[in-house]
Amino acid sequence: MVRIDKYLWAVRLFKTRSIATEACKKGKVMMDGVTVKSSRTLKPGDIVEIKDPPIIRKYKVLDVAEKRMGAKLTPEYIKEVTSHEELEVMELTRLANKMNRNKGTGRPTKKERRDLDSFFEGDD
């Protein structure tokens, strides 16, 4: 049995343990549709749900681990059981957001950066 925040960090679902703890505090981590505290213990066979708007990703705990592991070892400890339909919704949302960037917002593209550089270098 291991704490849920420690496990989510160990299987690389969160970059740091403090981010995993914060996700639990904000209600983004659930089990059986109920939000859980970061101190909740896990056992093999549990289903963990993580809110990743616009969907809820579901993972099955195959084995418990307390220490962070390499990415190649994670399939032995956790399995994603999110439906393919929900994953498609996620991908379509990402593509739609990517395509709807207004020109001039965010960081400049490489071409825009070269144009800016040539514009300012021309003033010398």
Automatic annotation (TrEMBL):
It comes from the Bacteria. SUPFAM superfamilies: Alpha-L RNA-binding motif. Transmembrane segments: none annotated. Residues 2-60 form the RNA-binding S4 domain. Keywords: DNA-binding, RNA-binding, Stress response. GO terms for biological process: cellular response to heat. Residues 98-124 are annotated as: Disordered. Pfam families: S4. InterPro entries: HSP15, S4_RNA-bd, S4_RNA-bd_sf. One of its GO terms (molecular function) is DNA binding. Belongs to the HSP15 family. This is Ribosome-associated heat shock protein Hsp15. The lineage of its organism: Bacteria, Pseudomonadati, Bacteroidota, Bacteroidia, Marinilabiliales.
